[in-house]
Amino acid sequence: MPGITREEVAHLARLARLELKGEELDHFAGQLDDIIGAVARVSEVADQDVPPTSHPLPLTNVMRADEVRPSLTPAQALSGAPAQEQQRFKVPQILGED
Amino acid sequence: MTVTDLVSYEDALASYDPVMGLEVHVELGTKTKMFCGCSTELKQDANSQTCPVCLGLPGALPVVNEIGVESAIKIGLALNCEIAEWCRFARKNYFYPDMPKNFQTSQYDEPIAFNGYLDVQLEDGEIFRVQIERAHMEEDTGKSTHVGGATGRIHGASHSLLDYNRAGIPLIEIVTKPIEGAGARAPEVAKAYVAELRELIKALGVSEARMEMGQMRCDVNLSLRPHGREEFGTRSETKNVNSLRSVERAARYEVQRHAAVLSSGGTIVQETRHFHEEDGSTTAGRIKDNAEDYRYFPEPDLVPVAPARDWVEELRKGLPELPRLRRARLKEDWGVNEHDMQSILNAGAVDLIVATTEAGAPSDQARKWWMGELARNANETGRGLDELPITPAQVARVAALVAAGDLNDKLARQVIEGVLAGEGDPDTVVEKRGLKVVSDEGALSTAVDEAIAGNAAIADKIRAGKVAAAGALVGAVMKATRGQADAARVRELILEKLGAEG
Predict the structure, then answer these.
(1) Structural domain containing residue A40
(2) Average per-residue pLDDT for chain B
(3) Care to name a GO molecular-function term for this sequence (chain B) (predicted)?
(4) Contact A77/B164 with Cβ under 8 angstroms?
(5) Of B159, B298, B308, which is closest to A90 when you measure between CB atoms?
């Protein structure tokens, strides 16, 4: 049975930029392991004739003509930004000092 | 930063065999972004071309741009790839401020095009086949401006500013299979491949592929292995190498650097490296994340793309002549040597010359003007030939006026100068500047008589049979007519009047 270890949860938390305390890692590792186990049961009933699916609707080729539509104004685009400068989104330092 | 020791290129090649992988990103020339209708026009106001989809706002639904898909298929076909019957987009998850969604919509294990090749011609004419692994669809990131550090670099910056106008512009990433067997010519192969790919993309009309504008960017992956070993060494990935010359230099530098590290008993770290135009060196960037850290998964907001076979075949039929074959054909037609053809190519003059001949000019005349006067002007004014305010049809008209004897070369140059200065089309410039060759025999005859009278000593020499002296009188007439006389006709008149045989 596939499962997930506490180390893997800690790794994923780091990738997702989530700060988890030790007891939270224990807690979520157990819960996630249960969930993965439950989902894995699907593959027990899915036989060769059932292809993996990523979309519930049997649709393909939904495309859009290459025609320009109005964009937001810069003010609208920036309205949710915690900080802005020179009509741009302002973000904290990307690289730490090294 | 420490100075990296290098071994000489020859020594590196004596011990090691280079293996390369090239990843090229091409920004498509679509009017709108890959998954939304925002304009892709360059140099617009910051954040004036964004919407909920490309900003990744909750609830926004992307829809794929059909020209984006069509362009990807055309590129795939031109690279002799198979086109997927069915493929999906995938989310590549990572946190970086240039991607407002916190994931890039890309393709993972189901690229739209795969398993192809591109034949490239090296400088000595040898054809080298570069195998293509895949070409897939994805989207560009936003543009960062780093504030507070030295010369805009990310190192030492206090904060960064983001403009998302570019975020979501369609990109096609083209990945080669490992390029083996190029040996010492690996850097040359890398350059020739990127050059050929650029020509191909332009010929397909899917992008202008201007490297200096970031419309085409290359990553050079390189590793060395000792001669005789099958297994690849650890590779470095030099990012954003953005000119043909830099591609060659980056590959060469990495060969020398790897060899220095390996032969001193060190190990190559798998990392991204930054290329520096100033001295052709590379420096370490971040240690590469493992692929699984991107946690790719199928994009649930987009449905699969399943290109109908008849559509694919229709696109295949519409493919243009391959640039390499077209070049060979034109070289033959024009009767030029490899070196001249290369100069024409480097100057970006091929299409202009073709258009000029199509407008009626003989190819030697079209070449002469584009590679001479016009190339000089473009060079002096820091423009591309295609940016000059003169059309191939106008150049053809100038050539026609010369052929008809209405202009001589000197006057033709003045006409071109006038057209470039915005004075109008060639006929208008001729009219306004009064540049017609003086073909009025009466006026010419008078000018010749005056020249003879004013240079009696020279005239005597010519009468005595010293025909070569006629040049001085021709010069005098040309001066008197401000260059507007037909020099050959002037010479004839002089000899005739002085009773000398030409």
Answers:
(1) 1-46
(2) 91
(3) transferase activity
(4) yes
(5) B159
Q: Which residues are B144's β-sheet partners?
A: B162
pLDDT for A20 beyond 80: yes
pTM exceeding 0.95: no
Identity of the residue in B46, B52, B66 whose CB atom sits nearest the CB atom of A64: B66
Q: Is A31 contained in some domain?
A: yes
Are residues A69 and B68, on separate chains, in Cβ contact within 8 Å?
no
CB B259 within 8 A of CB B15: yes
Consecutive 10-residue averages of pLDDT for chain B (502 residues)? 76 96 98 98 96 95 97 98 97 91 95 97 90 98 88 81 97 98 96 95 95 94 95 93 93 96 92 90 74 84 96 97 91 91 87 94 94 92 90 94 86 92 91 77 82 87 85 86 81 84 62
Quick check: is A22 in a domain? yes
Does some domain include residue A38? Answer: yes
Cross-strand pairs, B147: B159
Per residue in B363-382, pLDDT tens? 999 999 999 999 999 999 98
Residue A91 forms contact with B (CB below 8 Å): yes
How much is the pLDDT for B287? 64
Question: Which residue has 């960037």 as its token pair?
Answer: B285
- Sign, CA dihedral B236-B173-B143-B248, equals positive
Q: Report ipTM for this prediction.
A: 0.87
Q: Cα(B260)–Cα(B258) distance, rounded to whole angstroms?
A: 5
CATH of B441-497, one of 3.40.50.300, 1.10.10.410, 3.90.1150.10, 1.10.10.10: 1.10.10.410
Interface test with A, best of B303, B311, B312 (most A CBs within 10 A): B303
Extents of the domains making up chain B:
9-311, 321-433, 441-497
With CB atoms and an 8 Å threshold, state whether B55 touches A77: yes
Q: Which residues pair with B23 in a beta bridge?
A: B175, B219
| Closest CB to A63 among B46, B64, B100 | B64
Token pair, residue B477, equals 């007439």
**What gap in Å lies between CA B123 and CA B77, rounded to an integer?**
26
